[in-house]
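Long-time lurker, first post. I've been practising inverse folding by hand and with some scripts of my own, and I keep getting stuck on stretches where the structure tokens seem ambiguous. Below is the full token string for one chain I'm working on. Before anyone asks, I'm not after the true native sequence, just a reasonable design that respects the backbone. If someone could post their per-position residues I'd love to compare against what I wrote down in my notebook.
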């Protein structure tokens, strides 16, 4: 089936993605609309010299590698449940095939390639190293990686049927995060590929647009389908946060990414506190525990493609202390120096 995958990681209330005049999907990221890591010490932010971005040298102790890792080993239960519901919808694949044609695929591919810088061992080699290492840890083939100029901190994945997928990260995201945090973002995007989220991400965007164009019942069908797709998208993001943790191997890295995307900037990055953000998450749970609070919480999140950042932080904190996560770590092996080179 021809499929185009688009995932992103921002923090805004995101409605269904729509095409712009250039036929690009609007993007959101690791936050409440779509994408984030520990407050790490010793990793300096990106520096500018002679008007060019200089990435600080990336180095960390040899990480654990999951050589036999399967997507279901870390897939969130809500992801599993909602994927089964989507698969049970009759005619979904056929409708997706009708909504997505070769021309649209090529426009998306060329538009992204033509406006970004392709990362390689000779072009931004530290970012290249991060991606290769993250893919190795998750036991997945490394996609291409592009850096794109944008003031909006974001990252997204594009995978077209029969072609090598690629990840795009924005320059402002590079500016905002530490090296470990940036690799956690890359791992989050790899999680979408590892779990085959692409088809459903595409349908979540295109199917809703197509349903709205159907005369008569179109709006009703779109609204009903939109809620189900967004419910799945929020669950899929929780899965990919787990992929980020498997690579970062430190929950504070992932939580720090979420915190920075929610309300961080380079000038205040050293003042942010992960523990305080987790306490904020607990206070949100307490405030929404009453019947009225529960209703408001559901109304607040129903139309979001990403869970609220504080809830994602709490989820990843809890999973990092689970027996499931500890069992995965026990199965892993140390990445040696030869592999890293």
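-- Answer (accepted) --
I ran through it position by position. Result:
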């Amino acid at each position: 089936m021809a499929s185009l995958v688009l995932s992103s990681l921002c923090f805004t209330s995101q409605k269904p993605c729509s095409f712009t005049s250039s036929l690009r999907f609007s993007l959101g990221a690791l936050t409440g609309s779509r994408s984030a890591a520990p407050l790490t010490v010793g990793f300096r932010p990106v520096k500018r010299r002679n008007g060019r971005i200089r990435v600080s040298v990336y180095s960390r102790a040899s990480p654990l590698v999951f050589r036999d890792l399967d997507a279901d080993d870390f897939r969130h239960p809500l992801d599993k449940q909602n994927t089964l519901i989507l698969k049970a919808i009759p005619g979904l694949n056929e409708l997706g095939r009708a909504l997505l044609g070769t021309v649209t695929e090529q426009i998306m591919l060329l538009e992204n390639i033509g406006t970004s810088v392709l990362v390689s061992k000779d072009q931004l080699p530290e970012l290249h190293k991060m991606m290769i290492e993250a893919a190795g840890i998750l036991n997945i083939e490394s996609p291409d990686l592009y850096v794109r100029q944008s003031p909006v901190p974001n990252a997204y994945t594009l995978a077209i049927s029969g072609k090598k997928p690629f990840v795009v990260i924005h320059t402002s995201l590079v500016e905002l995060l530490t090296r470990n945090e940036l690799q956690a973002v890359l791992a989050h995007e790899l999680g979408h590929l590892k779990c085959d989220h692409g088809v459903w991400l595409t349908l979540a965007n295109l199917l809703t647009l197509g349903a709205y164009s159907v005369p008569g019942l179109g709006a009703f069908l779109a609204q009903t389908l939109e809620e189900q797709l967004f419910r799945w998208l929020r669950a899929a993001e929780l899965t990919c946060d787990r992929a980020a943790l498997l690579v970062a191997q430190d929950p504070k890295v992932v939580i720090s990414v979420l915190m920075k995307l929610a309300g961080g900037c380079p000038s205040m990055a050293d003042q942010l506190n992960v523990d305080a953000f987790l306490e904020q998450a607990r206070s949100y749970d307490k405030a929404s525990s009453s019947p009225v609070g529960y209703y408001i919480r559901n109304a607040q999140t129903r139309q979001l493609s990403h869970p609220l950042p504080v809830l994602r932080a709490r989820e990843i904190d809890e999973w990092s202390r689970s027996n499931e996560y500890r069992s995965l770590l026990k199965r892993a092996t140390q990445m040696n120096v030869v592999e890293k080179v």
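A couple of notes from the structure itself: The first strand starts at residue 4 and ends at 8. The chain has a mean pLDDT of 76. Happy to go over any region you disagree with.
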